[in-house]
Each structure stands twice: as C-alpha cells, then as structure tokens.
C-alpha cells in the first residue's frame, strides 16, 4: 500500500484520480484543493507519491510549479506526477529541475496513469539505493566534512522512503561517530520499530522495497 496526495482544484478531477489510484494500488489517497492546503499536509504527513495540476483557478500565485519548488525547499523529495491539460514545454523543462517529477496529459487512461506511477515509484527506489551507497561511503570515510555530507544525504533518504528503517540506522552511525550516543540510540530504536522483519542493517546489504 502507498500513501498518495492528490492536489487539484476541481472536485470531479480529484474524485476521478482517487478512484483510479485506489483501484490500482488499494490505497486511500488524501485530497487537497489548493497548494496551501497541500503544503500543510506535506509538512504534517509523509507521502509516497503526489499528483498535482499546474493551473489553479483560485490562486494564480501558487501553481503546481511553485508547489514543487516549495516542496524541495522544505527538503521534501517525494515523487510528483503532474496531471494537467495546461502544461507547456517550458513548464516541463522548469519542473524537471526538481526531480523526481513526471508529466501526464489530460485526458488519460487508467493504464497510462498506472505506468506513470510505477515509473516514479521505481525511480524513487533507484534513487534511494544510490543515496544509500553514497552515504555508506561517506560515513566510513576519514575525510573532513564527509559526515556532514552523509547527514544531508540521509535526510533526503528520510524524505524519499519515510517508512524505511535504513535512514535511521545510518543516522545512528553518524551520531555515534560524533559522540552523540543518546540520540544515536533513539534512531536505532526508531529503526527497530520500522524494521518489521528485525533484519537490522549492515553495510552492503541489498535494499528491499518498503
């Protein structure tokens, strides 16, 4: 099951997307009718995927592009699927700087929507795996500043897969190296709570889907 946020100012479009996504993934998407509400939800909850329109009739200053920019500035790197009839090549080029992002033109079919969502979720997993290897290398490096770089990568991993125990295990390693055993133990406990198979984590382990 995945956690999805559907952002669109048209109720009938939200209803359609919720029905199609819930049918494909057996989930209960959360709805937002504008960017301001969506940002508040993203600050409060962790989503695996966000869909958004570009154009919002009631707020010209907060469109889908600005929404994605503000998400990234908040350190939220959840994959975003833009679903719109108003996208232009310039729009798409602009938002592609804030990956992971993809675009689906209205109207669309159930299969087209499912493929786009699958591609974004696969991209998220691949990105997480890449960040994992980078963080591992930095944590076990002796170069000055590498722990700070590792921490930034791990924070991005938290945003990509909030239900994974691995970022907590990595953060615990970072904190132990800094001598903060108390906070490291809190992250280990959080990791164990999320690690339903109680596998733990060792450098070089293969990543399983969350």
TrEMBL record:
Keyword Transferase: yes
Modified residues (4-aspartylphosphate): 53
Pfam families in alphabetical order: Response_reg
Keyword Magnesium attached: no
Name the record gives this protein: Histidine kinase
Domain Response regulatory, first and last residues per copy: 3-121
UniProt-listed PROSITE patterns: RESPONSE_REGULATORY (PS50110)
Transmembrane regions: none
Keyword set, alphabetical order: Kinase, Phosphoprotein, Transferase
GO molecular function annotations of the record: kinase activity
Alphabetized PANTHER family for the sequence: RESPONSE REGULATORY DOMAIN-CONTAINING PROTEIN, STRESS RESPONSE REGULATOR PROTEIN 1
GO biological process terms, semicolon-separated: phosphorelay signal transduction system
